[in-house]
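TASK: fixed-backbone design
INPUT:
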């Protein structure tokens, strides 16, 4: 049993909520709020490209969830299950030098794409965030838009909302949500093939017309059957309005 199964069960329900309901946290105990830290390597002398860093973040997040240690008998299963059973929060932080090396000692997985590196860590209660992570900055650095060229064939596509502006940190969290939802809905052969490829994916910003044609909010189940497309809908705690669809993911 995959730790991501609850995502599949909640997917259509979440897309159908009124926008204001997506930010309702009245049923949460603040002491139990959990998040996955996603650490973005951003060296001052050689910053990564924005697209490659987002692709690394997307792969790292789902890799943690589908690692063998996330299986029911594995050491990561209970922390991941507790996190997935609630809201899927991620907090992206930037690191360089010794601080980047320090987070390599924490439980998680680092992915490198075209020289860009991101490390997704095992989720934990926010109030128990390790000091190696809590000392890292959440905001303050940004990467310029780049021109990544045509998306490679044979890997899932992650499409950023062309009408919504997001920082690289916000984008990193959103594409990580996208790969998790996609993985929860793939069949076993499709998931095994993706895992064999290291969960590689492409991140691109499509034309507005393409986005609107694919966006599955009105018919999430039909969109998955016809086009293999799922959507990330944000609660709106940071940067975007509640209920905003930030990313579409399309299976390979």
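OUTPUT:
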């Amino acid at each position: 049993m995959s730790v991501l199964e609850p995502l599949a069960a909640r997917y259509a329900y979440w897309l159908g909520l009124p926008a204001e309901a997506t930010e309702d946290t009245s049923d949460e105990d603040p002491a139990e709020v959990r998040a996955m830290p996603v650490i973005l390597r951003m060296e001052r002398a050689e910053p990564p490209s924005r697209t490659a860093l987002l692709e690394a973040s997307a792969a790292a997040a789902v890799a943690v969830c589908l690692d063998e240690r996330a299986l029911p008998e594995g050491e990561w299963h209970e922390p991941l299950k507790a996190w997935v059973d609630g809201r899927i929060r991620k907090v992206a932080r930037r690191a360089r030098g010794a601080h980047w090396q320090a987070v390599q000692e924490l439980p998680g997985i680092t992915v490198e794409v075209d020289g860009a590196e991101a490390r997704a860590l095992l989720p934990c209660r926010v109030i128990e965030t390790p000091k190696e992570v809590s000392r890292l900055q959440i905001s303050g650095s940004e990467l310029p838009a780049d021109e990544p060229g045509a998306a490679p064939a044979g890997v899932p596509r992650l499409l950023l909302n062309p009408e919504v502006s997001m920082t690289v940190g916000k984008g990193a969290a959103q594409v990580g949500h996208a790969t998790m939802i996609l993985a929860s809905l793939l069949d076993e052969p499709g998931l095994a093939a993706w895992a064999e490829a290291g969960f590689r994916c492409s991140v691109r910003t499509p034309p507005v017309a393409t986005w609107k044609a694919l966006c599955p909010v009105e018919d999430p189940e039909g969109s998955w059957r016809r086009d293999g497309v799922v959507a990330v809908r944000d609660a709106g705690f940071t940067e975007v309005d509640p209920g905003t669809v930030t990313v579409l993911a399309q299976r390979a």
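COMMENT: The beta strands are 34-41, 90-95, 108-113, 116-121, 124-125, 157-160, 202-204, 229-233, 245-250.
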